[in-house]
Amino acid sequence: MSVVPAQVLPGGVPAVPETARDTDGLGPPARLWPSLAAVYRAQLSRARVARIPLLFVATFQSVGIAVMMRGVVDSGTEARSVVAGSAVLVVAYVALNLLSQYFGQLRASGGLDHYATLPVPPAAVVLGAAAAYASFTVPGTLVTAVFGCALFGLPLSNLWILLLVIPLAGAALSGLGAACGLLAPRPELATLLGQLGMSAALLLGVLPADRMPEIIRLARDLLPSTYGVEAYARTFAERPDWAVVLADLGVCAGVGVVSLAVATWAYRRAAVR
């Protein structure tokens, strides 16, 4: 008895190629933006319980620094730096301090293994967590800016620039905070690095640059949040130089892309160990 292949018989069902059988059982690869939105919603829901204490601590700290500086700084150019630096400090507190702690604890507790089993791109995990934490800084930053302007007698007409400063400076600082948490060998070291970064943002961002030594000014130029502070501070002028403001924001955006890319690499490196 001879065996005839089914594909040559009338009405026979064509054979399915081996490669087709291998790929038909697999779902399509996860796309970045839907995955990013899913991680963002999950992180936002998880951190919702701690939102009020987080907003209170970050805002109270920045407002207190503005009040303290009112005793040594008069209205003028220096006051612009104080108000802008205090407002951006809310972003630095969350992006550098809390985000480094979160990823440090996530790595130490094995939480990265959970994300590694999900069909989610590594960039979506980093960006989603950074965006969720940065979202909590918006009310505190606005409250600090309004309070600082009222305290130093500065105009509120260009307060809208914070809608650009917050995400761009937040992206730059969030990438650094996530990288510190993912690269630190222990969560205690991640907390220390986050605290040091926030202290640098406090000292170099709030204090007027004119009163700093030259070597400290150079260190200030290396801090990404400085350009967010400068962008906001320039808008207090009677005729702001918007080209320079956009250039400062462009630096924040560029550093944000690089720092988030480094954080994504650090996430891949930590997840496979």
Task: Characterize the largest beta sheet: strand count, sense, and whether it forms a barrel.
Answer: none
Look at the helices and sheets and give the structural class.
mainly alpha
Assembly type of the chains comes to single chain
Number of helices: 12
> Cα distance, first to last residue?
58 Å
Mean pLDDT: 83
Give the helices and strands, then pairings.
Blueprint: H1 18-24, H2 32-46, H3 51-70, H4 77-108, H5 111-116, H6 122-135, H7 137-152, H8 162-183, H9 187-206, H10 214-221, H11 224-234, H12 242-271
Helix pairs in contact: 2-6, 3-4, 3-7, 4-6, 4-7, 4-8, 4-9, 4-11, 6-8, 6-12, 8-9, 8-11, 8-12, 11-12
Protein described:
- This protein is mainly alpha-helical and 273 residues long.
- The chain is 74% helix and 0% strand.
- The protein is built from 12 helices and no strands.
- The chain has helices at 18-24, 32-46, 51-70, 77-108, 111-116, 122-135, 137-152, 162-183, 187-206, 214-221, 224-234, 242-271.
- Helix 2 packs across helix 6 and helix 8 packs antiparallel against helix 9 (187-206).
- It starts with 17 loop residues before the first helix and ends with a helix.
Search tags:
elongated, mainly alpha, 273 residues
What's this entry about, in short?
This protein has 273 residues and is an all-alpha fold. It has helices at 18-24, 32-46, 51-70, 77-108, 111-116, 122-135, 137-152, 162-183, 187-206, 214-221, 224-234, 242-271.
